[in-house]
Amino acid sequence: MARPGGFEAAEQQQQEVLSRQQERHYRLLAELQALVKALPSACQQRLSYTTLSELALALLDGTVFEIVQGLLEIQHLTEKNLYSQRRQLHSEHRGLKQELFHRHKEAQQCCRPHNLPLLRAAQQREMEAMEQQIREEQRMMDEKIVLELDQKVIDQQSTLEKAGVSGFYITTNPQELTLQMNLLELIRKLQQKEAEAEKTFS
């Protein structure tokens, strides 16, 4: 008994979709293998055929490219924001120092000569206290920056793990972080290649 024509057409269509996906998977895998050759050999050894094949599968529909793009944009914005906060603090500190310097200068000009050594000693202590406070505020700002950037890394790891990208999970292990950074770089380079290929064909 012959199967209805509609069913065969649907089946054929499904086969074509699968075959296209398979072709795309092989192409992405081949491109990843080519890109990996540019990485340090220690990293190359850790990126097995299986890992790259899983990565190529995760990249099939293009969603991961969009996720990575979004994550990188968030990271750049955060870095820019933190950098400008640090610059602002630096400029506030410069202003405070100048203000103190002028105040000291005026006080010295109005001071009687025999009181000058006492005044200078007091001013020296005040200047040192301010330097100490400035150093402390800068240290706290730098700690805040490191914590925020660490948090961004954790967000990226978690997002990519949920998206099913092989090699991504929350970790602070330096070797694993290096591997993840290299994987991100591979995804970014592949995305650029895809974008260029689309431009060529459109």
Structure description:
This protein has 202 residues and is mainly alpha-helical. 85% of the residues lie in helices and 0% in strands. The chain has one domain (10-59, 78-201). The protein has helices at residues 5-36, 41-46, 49-58, 63-110, 116-162, 174-201.
SSE topology string: HHHHHH
Distance between the termini: 45 Å
Arithmetic mean pLDDT: 90
Q: Major β-sheet, in short? A: none
User: What is the strand content?
Assistant: under 5%
Spans of at least 5 consecutive residues with low confidence: none
Layout: helices, strands, pairs:
Elements: H1 5-36, H2 41-46, H3 49-58, H4 63-110, H5 116-162, H6 174-201
Tags for this model:
202 residues; mainly alpha; 6 helices; coiled coil; DGCR6 protein
Tell me briefly what this model is.
The chain is mainly alpha-helical. It has helices at 5-36, 41-46, 49-58, 63-110, 116-162, 174-201. Helix 1 (5-36) packs across helix 3 (49-58) and helix 1 (5-36) crosses helix 6 (174-201).
